[in-house]
Structure formats: structure tokens, C-alpha cells
Amino acid sequence: MRSTRSIPSLDGLRAISILLVIISHVAVDVYHDYAQTFTRNESIFQNLFLVGHLGVTVFFVISGFLITTLLLQEEPISLRRFYFRRTLRIFPPYYFYLGVILTLGLAGLISIDWSNTIAAFTYTRNYFFDEGSTDAWYLAHTWSLCVEEQFYLIFPATLVLLGKRWGFGVVGLVLVACPVVRLIYVINDPSISVEFGRFETVADALAIGCLLAKGRPRLHEVLAYKRLIGSSLPLLTPVVAVFITWLGNFPKYYSKPIYVLLLLSVQNICIAIFLDWAVTNAEGRVGKLLNLRPVVFLGVISYSVYLWQEPFLNPDLSMPLVVKLLLVFGASIVSFYLIERPSLRFRRFLEGRKSKRLTLVPVSREEG
User: Fold this and answer.
1) What total of structural domains would you count in the chain?
2) Is residue 364 included in any domain, yes or no?
3) Range of the domain at 334
4) pTM score > 0.85 for this model?
5) Are 80 and 58 in contact (CB under 8 A)?
6) Contact predicate 347/89, CB 8 Å
7) In-domain check, residue 1
8) Alpha-carbon distance 303 to 298, whole Å?
9) Exposed e or buried b for every residue in 24-38, given b needs 16+ CB within 10 A?
10) What is the pLDDT of residue 2?
């Protein structure tokens, strides 16, 4: 069942990521139902569960790490093969979800905004979206999938066009530039949310995953880092990452320019260190927990869960929370087994046919 057999713990980390997203949306749901009766302290407590953006950031770091690991195994990098594999991995579940939402809208069962729908279908939702529209909740979460798709388009092409040396130099530049871009946005508009999700404001989370994958062999030769990864200190990094997220929910207690310039970068570093630690120490207690079958399974279906948790955890949907959660996982299982797995099998079938054709090509005398 494991989707990343050569990299242990990644599916477990994906499971943690999707759980953070679900916890956040459950907190929003509960707050929506009981907001009028909440005391001030209860409202503050509810804010401590708003960790969805952290979950998405973990997804970004994992994506950068995994995609770079896969690309570094290719020599030379084939853009055609990469885009072919990503298309059959990403598009079928995504467009199936959008198709269901569009169908429900056309049937009059939910309200949809055509500009938002087009933005979601074209992977531009993180730039063109009306948050106040009636369909905002059903499509709001697609911002992160748009960022991922933009990363898939840009990063491999950068490595091919500039070469790996200069390509990773650009990735390093992104790591430095994104915090500055966030700072510029905040200076221009202090009320802007740090979660507004434009590619240029969150790409450093992807970039640090890329650089970790690229520099990991050398990092593990550095004695101080080797000792760090071999110790239990990285267990503190998730605590720091969560604290930074909590701080972001209480803006009167921090300087927003410092938060977007420095603290979010520290959070990315913490996630990267913990990722490396979890992968390196897969046989330890935490590693074994991350690689338990139920945890791995949740990580494997996390893409479908991320897609389908949004409509069923809609605060305006009147039904018990337990029923909502059951519907989330029911729809995710259906999407995984009826859409994701068949599309991956179809991809393997097409790759097998291509490989077979190549082996059947006769060898000329000059080549022999």
C-alpha cells in the first residue's frame, strides 16, 4: 500500500499533514455552531486548533523533497516523462472532484461562481478567487493544489533549462526571496493574511524540501548535523512549528513583518529537519509509529481526503460532526479506489507499453 517505498516515513508525515487540516476545519465547524455561546477563553482555545495552514506547509516541504529525490534519480531529466506521470497522478482525482462540484452547481443543489470555478479548473485559484462568493468554501482549498501544480510546471523545467547546478541556485534564491516578498506585501497592506497562498509567498516551503533532498548526502557528512539527526532534539522542531502557527492566530502579540520575514522561515526549517529526522530514523519509536499500516494508509489516501474534506466539513452543512467525518472518509475511499488507483494502473500500463515498444525496436548493425 505504501506509495513511497524507497522513502520511509513520508506517508506517515502526509497522514499528520491531513490530520492537521481536518482538525482545523473541525474547529471552524464547532466554532460556527457555538460561537454565540463561547466565552473569550473558549474562543482563544478554539484558535489553538487552527493548524490547517501548518498541515499544508508540511505537504509543500514533502512535495519539494520527494519530487527532487525522483528527479535526481533521472539522468537526463525527461520533462515529457515527468509531466506525463504527474498528469495521471494529479489530474484525475482533482478534475473528478471539480466535476462533481460543477454538476451539483448546474443541478441547483449548491451555488457556484463561474469565475471561481474557472480559476479552479485552470489552476489559478491562488490568484483569481472571490473569497466572499457563495461557492468559496467548496473551492477554497484548491489554492494549495494550484501552488503544487505551478511548482510541477516550473521546477523540473528550470533544472532542464539551466542545468542542475544553476537550477538549484535559483531554488536557493527562491528560499531567500519569498520572505522578502511576503514582507513587501505586508508593508503594502498590513491587514493581509499570511495564508493568502500566492506562489511567490509560499514557494520557500517547497524550495527548502528541494534543497534538503539535494544537499542531504553532504549534510549527513557534517558532524554537527549528523549528531543532531542522530539525537532526539529534532522532536522539538514540531513544537516550534506549532507554536509559530499559534502565534500567527494572535496578531496582537507579535510583529507581523518579523513573522512573515523570519518566523515562517524558521517554521519551514523546523519541518525540513523533522522530515529528515523521521526518514533517517524510520526504525526508531516515532519512525515505527509513522510507518504503522493505518497511518501509512491515511497518508496514501491523503490527496483524496484533502479534496473531499472541504465540502463535508462546511460549517453551513447541518448534520452531526461524526456523520460529516464519516462522509469525508467514505468519499475519499471511493475517490481513491475508483479514480486514483485506476489512473495509476493506467499510467503503469502505458509506461509498460512504451518500454515494450522500445525493447522491440531492431538494433541496426552500426548500433550493434
Assistant:
1) 1
2) no
3) 10-354
4) yes
5) no
6) yes
7) no
8) 9
9) bbbbbbebeeeeeee
10) 47
